[in-house]
Structures are given as structure tokens and as C-alpha cells.
Amino acid sequence: MKEIKLIPKITHYCRFGGKPLNKIGKKCLKSWKIFFPDFKIIERNEGNFDINCCQYVKEAYEAKKQSYAPYSNFYVGAALLTAEGNIYRGCNIENAAYSPTNCAERTAIFKAVSEGERNFVAIAIAGSKEEYLAPCGVCRQVMQEFCNSEAFQIILVKNREDYVIYRLEELLPGAFSKNMLSDLPGTKPAANDS
After folding, report:
1. Tens-digit pLDDT profile for residues 93-106
2. CA–CA distance, 110 with 88 (Å, rounded to integer)
3. What is the pLDDT of residues 151-164, one digit of tens each?
4. Which of the residues are catalytic?
5. pTM summary value
6. Among residues 77, 142, 156, 193, which one has the fewest Cβ atoms lying within 10 Å of its Cβ?
């Protein structure tokens, strides 16, 4: 098994593409610390990302090419990293009836689970617009089912060189989890739960 170290527990990471920040930019970003005390600025050649975010961002963009979105024209790709170092791509798949539509994040997770994977480290999500694309509530709940919310990292991609990283617990605080069901009378542990 490939060892993958996780990014330390810091609330927000932000990486700004290939150009060093000028003094005004640094001053502006440092003022964010007033509102986000755990915010950390990482420039292109600074910091030590233990997971290769650039690779997962690229994989998410590759996954987006397979999107089926004839109704919204909003194309999304996701790249899911497992603890074993495997990457599963997913794309959004729309349906004329709308409710059967599946998001890219769930496509990647379901693909990995169907192949026997259960331990996930991170997911990168890239969309059609150049803005940070956060997972919907349903995708967050699916992540909660299979991921350690304190450690699982969600990479929201604005473009190939600009992204932010959150932990699942930040995007889904107070989540409903399988632990809440474990002590109920008549409930059984999930099969193959590891």
C-alpha cells in the first residue's frame, strides 16, 4: 500500500497560480485572517503538499470531458483518490427527468465502491465555470458515508492552478452518520463495513 500523508488540519488552503503575489495582494489576503483565523496562503513554490493536488486537478478536468449534460450544459468532473493511491474519475450524468441525474462526485465514489474500495483520501472537483465548485448536499452526505470527515480533503478547483482545499467536516458540519444508527434497537451493522 502506498503511504499518503494528509495535509495538516488547517481550515483553508488557497493556491494562486504561477505568479508570485505582489505586496498589495499579500496584504489583502492576510486581511482574510481576521475572518478566517486558520487561513493559510501558499504560493506556487511554497508549502509542501503531501498529496499531489495538481495531478488530481488534471484528472478532474479529464473526467469532465466525459460529462453528459445536454440540458444544463454544466459539465463537471471529479477525481477521487483512495488510500491505496488509486484514482477514480467521475462525471455528471444528466437525465431528461432531472431527478435521476448523478453528480460527478457520486459517480466517482460509486465507481470506486463498486470496485471494492472503501478508504478515500481526497476528491478534486472541476466544473464549467471558473469558480470554486462545491459538492451538493447529497454528494456531501455520500462522502460522509465512506470518508473520515476530519481527514477527507475536498479540492474545489477554480482553474488548473487555483484551488482551495477543505476537510469534509467543514463542508458538512453536524453530519448525520452511520454512528447515529449503531445503538438503535433492531439495527444491524452494514455488510462489508470496514
Report:
1. 999 999 999 999 99
2. 9
3. 999 999 999 888 89
4. 105
5. 0.72
6. 193
